[in-house]
Design brief:
The strands form 3 sheets. The chain has a 7-stranded antiparallel sheet with strand order 1-8-9-10-7-6-5. The protein contains 5 helices and 12 strands. The chain has one domain (41-192). It has helices at residues 47-52, 55-58, 90-97, 170-178, 182-192, and strands at residues 4-6, 12-15, 22-26, 31-32, 40-45, 60-70, 77-89, 106-112, 124-132, 135-146, 154-155, 158-159. The longest helix is centred in the last third of the chain and has 11 residues, at 182-192. With 193 residues, the chain is of the alpha+beta class. Strand 2 and strand 3 form a beta hairpin.
């Protein structure tokens, strides 16, 4: 697709939205967190997104999560949206979508906002493609965005999308980002098969 390009050498950096220090380094065939460890610490399924998808889309093999991380340089928190997609049903592919099976080699791409996409969609996001034993899997990573207020996102049991989602919350934001381009994400997967 014309708005997808392979990550070039030497590397691409995903940076903290607060201090602009790198939180994830991306090469054509691998990812690395500067300082080691993890760049994302917890997440939960994006419940509001489910209600915006059609019945057919709800049955597709996908996992969509809001993930929270923190910058080791400035200490500020941020959130991202991740979407993993495969052809088939969720029941058939869930072990891959939840990273419980070997995924095989990866290729990393940068995606530009497609023409006509709403402004809420970020201008660029990361696409990691895996060639699994069960077919191609795409993992899209959108963000990071600053997490100004953890209330309603993170509580005593970690990141959770329980109860009513507040207007203007990160849950609503990532739903607004993903729902208008859901068909495009599926088209990208079909083109890669």
């Amino acid at each position: 697709m014309k708005f997808v390009r392979r990550v070039a050498r030497p590397r691409h950096q995903i940076c903290c939205p607060s201090c602009k220090e790198p939180v994830l380094l991306v090469w054509p065939n691998r990812l690395k967190v500067p300082f080691g460890r993890y760049w994302l610490r917890d997440g939960d399924c994006i419940g509001p997104l489910y209600h915006r998808l059609s019945e057919a889309q709800r049955d597709e093999a996908y996992s969509a999560e809001l993930m929270v991380g923190g910058c080791r340089s400035c200490g500020e928190d941020f959130y991202v949206a991740t979407v993993s997609l495969m052809a088939g049903s969720y029941e058939e592919k869930q072990d891959y979508l939840l990273f419980n099976r070997a995924l095989g080699p990866q290729r990393n791409y940068l995606c530009q906002r497609p023409d006509g996409a709403p402004d809420v969609v970020p201008g660029q996001w990361l696409l990691t493609q895996y060639r699994t034993d069960a077919g191609v899997m795409h993992e899209h990573t959108f963000g990071p965005w600053p997490l100004k207020k953890a209330d309603g996102v993170e509580g005593s049991h970690g990141v959770s999308c329980c109860g009513v989602v507040a207007a203007g919350s990160p849950w609503e934001h990532v739903t607004d980002v993903l729902s208008p381009i859901w068909g495009t994400l599926r088209e990208m997967l079909e083109a890669a098969r």
